[in-house]
Please model this.
Amino acid sequence: MPERSEVILSDGVRLFVEMSGPADAPVTVVLLHGWCLDRRTWHHQIEALRGARVIAYDARGHGRSGSTRLRSATLTQLGKDLAEVLRQVAPSGPVVLAGHSMGGMTIMEYADTYAKEFAQRIAGLVFVSTTAEGHTHTSYGLPSHFAGLLRCGETLGAGVLARSGAWRPHRAVLPALRPAVRWLLFGDEYEPAALAVTMKAVARASLRSIGGFRASIGAQHRLDTLAALGDVPSAVLVGDRDRLTPPPCAESIAAALPGAELSVCRGAGHMLMLERPDEVSAALNAVVASAAGSTPIERGRRRRRAQVREGYDQAA
Model:
């Protein structure tokens, strides 16, 4: 059974955290979920990871974590939250960060804000169905003019939801949302249980979170941040039917990371951990194995690169 705990953030928000695996494992894996979802979307990978300490938590305003203020519903804040989680529940040893969608963008914010800390601690990265370019490539699988109209409608709707408070979607509306969630997030084939897990997660996201994070997600651009990370062992995965973060998003991330291996899963959509659990688990385990074999010298080199970059940023 996983260990359950809470991390109390500096602004008072409580994060629900689950931990499993040996406390003295050579590598700690931290799993970060996507927008409007929760830690349960990683359940296949948690079961597949062996010999690692695994930490999965619900982001603020999601799952069983506390609600967020509207001004704190940003990717920058999520990057700060990740830093606090690491300091409180994984204060030492090499770490592999794995992020799905918004979770991957959270990793990028952490890397950008805490470059020195990132270089000291992070020994591997896994990016699943995410982007470093906001909504640049998001077309929902539609012709450009229809995609533009849908994005405008989505942006307006997000603004309304963001001001609707910490309420959660009423159970009565979930069956009506199910076809839209299935179309938007899943590819050609999926297990009913995968959609059920996704709908349960959506039901736990507050309306403020559903709407509030939208602007930050659409505006983020972090390819330069990734390019400065060097040869960290990395895996980048995407489904070729992904309507939110299509293959060009993954291709640009992989191109920015010299140590990255890109995998495109045919017929899969945005929920790769549930649609293609074996492929995601295999990629994650491979990065963990590489991280376990990394030496302090290699991590020191990454730390020095971060210090050079930090000095350049200050000079600029």
